[in-house]
Amino acid sequence: MVFLTKIIVFCMFATGPGILTHKSLVNKDQSHSKKVDDCQRCKVLTDSFKKWLEETSRGKHEGGDAAWEEAKLKSYARSEMRLVEIQENLCSELKRHQDECYALSEEAETLLEQWWFHEHQTSLDLYTWLCIENLQHCCSMNHYGELCIPCPHKVNNKICNGNGKCNGDGTRKGDGKCICKKGFTGTSCDECAANFYNASEECKPCHRACDGCHGEGEQSCMKCAKGWSKEFDTCIDDNECSDLSICKSNEYCINKIGSYDCKLCDKTCKTCDGPGPSSCTSCFSNQVLWQHLKKQE
Ligand SMILES: *[C@@H]1O[C@H](CO)[C@@H](O)[C@H](O)[C@H]1NC(C)=O
């Protein structure tokens, strides 16, 4: 009896199961890291220099004549010995961009020495002196491009209205145009982007039922999004599956919020109203659907 029920609910099949083919998953090489530009490279180098400057700042002399120690430390502070120590370690701590750091440290060796022995007394930090003024790879903050022009598009005294950044800021690249944060648009990022609405300080996303809106929720839509229809001033999800011909004949329909899916019937079914072999609504010509017994399962 159990045996009978089990067989009867399915479309009976003469052929065996199909051969499953496995798509080979090719792992794409993800090891290549993004190339850094010259300004970033210089920042990496000067950050590393700063780190080793701190590491070599010697609090470790213990005991002995305090005054003598102090004098010794003072002479060590800008000594060639300390510079050599820094240079020996420079870039060694880096996990990313290390090769670029080493390359630049070689290129800039003479400049680094010059700064160490002659320039450090001026108030300029190494980054400003090396990256901005000498190598000219970077600009100071809020400046961009080859000539380090001030970023335009200020609103309320804030660059890009405080809602974006100036393209190329701090580098010798870019065009100074605003790159707005998500939700903002306009040359100065002072407007809400499409499908966002102005909630005083912020631009918030419209409800998914909307194609443009003037406020929160599905009742504030200007138009309804695809898959939604206006009903009593609000947008309601369409049930696409009520159109019985929306999927192909060997598929069944699943309504989703804002859309729908067509899924293939089980391969034993000709047509179906759901997943699996027990949802067949008709069979292929040489098979029989035992629909009247379906409910017994
Ligand atoms: C939002 O509205 C306020 C008040 O009308 C206005 O001052 C502000 O500029 C608007 N913001 C955006 C991003 O449109």
TrEMBL record:
Pfam families: DUF3456 (PF11938), EGF_laminin (PF00053). This is EGF-like domain-containing protein. Disulfide bonds join C180-C189. InterPro entries: DUF3456, EGF, EGF_Ca-bd_CS, Furin_repeat, Growth_fac_rcpt_cys_sf, LE_dom. The keyword Calcium applies. GO terms for biological process: animal organ development; system development. Keywords: Calcium, Disulfide bond, EGF-like domain, Signal. The keyword Secreted does not apply. Residues 1-18 form the signal peptide. Belongs to the CRELD family. GO terms for molecular function: calcium ion binding. It comes from Euphydryas editha (Edith's checkerspot). The lineage of its organism: Eukaryota, Metazoa, Ecdysozoa, Arthropoda, Hexapoda. Residues 156-190 form the EGF-like domain.
